[in-house]
Design brief:
Structural class: alpha/beta
Radius of gyration: 21 Å
CATH topology of the domain at 178-394: Aminopeptidase
CATH superfamily of the domain at 178-394: Zn-dependent exopeptidases
CATH architecture of the domain at 178-394: 3-Layer(aba) Sandwich
Bound molecules: zinc ion
CATH class of the domain at 178-394: Alpha Beta
Number of helices: 9
Helix content: 25-40%
Strand content: 15-25%
Largest sheet: 7 strands, mixed
């Protein structure tokens, strides 16, 4: 491919995404994700030590096989097509697409590259899968690496992580969105338990969901819960409820536990891993990179909702940032034919956090974090006949967040699928 062809291809990348967001996101589907967590009586495996981050000086790009000549191009479709394993010089790509506010920042781990746009501050570091987007940690599929002195990013990350973020075109909920909130667990499945009181996770998720519903309903939004009381509900049933309601968005609510370990704390947010990308964590489940699911058709929107809700929750609660992650074992997300994310609102195995979660005022903050991210516009829908503004409705201006405290190689904190 000639240099001119490559440059044209990079420009087409951004144009394609702009068109896709402007035309395609009007009918948004938000998806709820549910999970089955291990019972507290079953001791969870001890946490593996964090994987050391490779020194940037030796973070050379791995050699990838040469693709067939007829397919030797970057695939642009935001679907489940394979993206060819290529490394793209990040600064060249930014400059080609008119993103010129780049800064190299030296730190103890080498030279990071900081990109600033009117709404985005994105920092990528060599040898580190954790990117910082507006102060929030986002796990990439591959660590950026250095090739001929340039920081390079993998094409899967470029298309599935970086481009959706820097394009700054958020998905837009329709005028009368249907949002399904899924309180995790219920009935015979209690989830995990508070280390202080022994109260089950299923109680806290249901209360959190009700509070979110109240807040969004006050704005005129149609919000449904997959369960409104303490009943058994399988993961397929939760997905089917969203399908029957033709939901625009699905959000599954959970709390974490690593009992009998007490230290881990904070909020983490999940969405389904795009095809071709390694998951942020697998929890001993198979992580087949060639596999795709119906929800992978919403990869960019999944990431948008994940980062928006995650950041909003950190802002309202002040909780520790355990970053936005991708996983394939979240079976409640996989069949969703709409954007879908899963929120972990804190650790019931951490005494300090368990005490906060037990406080109704704190759960109200958790509800406010979700509601503010989804619908920060104050006028009720009934008072407005126009569609919500794309950027102001879905991308609220938020104060900067501190850098995430969790490394990209976060320990597996749960032992069973969701
Ligand atoms: Zn759970």
């Amino acid at each position: 491919m000639s240099r001119a062809q490559k440059r044209r291809g990079l420009l087409l990348d951004l144009d394609f995404w702009r068109l896709g967001f402007q035309g395609g996101w009007l009918a948004l589907g938000l998806v709820l994700a549910g999970c089955r967590t291990a019972r507290i009586e079953e001791p969870l495996p001890s946490l593996p030590p964090p994987t050391p981050v490779a020194a940037p000086a030796i973070a050379q790009c791995p050699v990838v096989p040469e693709p067939p000549a007829e397919t030797n191009r970057i695939t642009l479709a935001p679907t489940n097509e394979w993206l060819l394993p290529m490394w793209v010089p990040w600064e060249d790509w930014c400059l080609t697409n008119g993103l010129k506010d780049l800064k190299r920042v030296s730190n103890g781990n080498g030279t990071s590259v900081e990109l600033t746009t009117p709404r985005t501050r994105l920092i990528l570091s060599p040898g580190n899968r954790l990117a910082a987007w507006n102060g929030v940690g986002i796990n990439l599929g591959y660590s950026p690496c250095v090739q001929r002195g340039q920081l390079c990013v993998h094409t899967v990350d470029l298309h599935k992580s970086l481009l959706p973020l820097v394009a700054e075109l958020s998905p837009v909920l329709p005028e009368q969105p249907v949002i399904v909130i899924d309180p995790g667990h219920g009935g015979k499945d209690p989830g995990c338990f508070s280390v202080l009181s022994g109260r089950p996770e299923k109680d806290f998720t249901l209360d959190w969901a009700r509070r979110i519903q109240r807040r969004l309903a006050a704005q005129g939004l149609q919000v449904h819960l997959t369960r409104t009381n303490d009943i058994d509900l399988s993961l397929p049933q939760r997905a089917e409820i969203a399908h029957q309601l033709n939901a625009d968005l699905f959000i599954s609510l959970h709390f974490n536990s690593v009992y009998p370990t007490y230290e881990p704390a904070g909020i983490e947010t999940y969405c389904l891993t795009p095809k071709g990308m390694p998951s942020s964590l697998t929890r001993d489940f198979e992580d087949d990179l060639t596999q795709s699911y119906p929800n992978n058709a919403f990869d960019p929107a999944n990431l948008h909702y994940a980062v928006l809700l995650h950041r909003s929750l950190l802002n309202t609660t002040g909780a520790r940032d355990r970053t936005v992650k991708r996983a394939r074992f979240l079976s409640v997300l996989r069949p969703q034919q709409r954007p879908a994310i899963l929120l972990e609102g804190g650790f019931l195995s951490n005494p300090t956090e368990a005490r906060r979660i037990a406080d109704p005022n704190y759960r109200e903050l958790l509800a406010r974090g979700v509601a503010n991210a989804l619908w920060p516009a104050k006028p009720a829908i009934a008072q407005s006949s126009r569609l919500p503004d794309k950027t102001s409705a879905m991308t609220p201006a938020l104060p900067p967040q501190p850098a995430p405290e969790t490394p990209a190689t976060s320990p597996n904190v749960m032992s069973s699928p969701r």
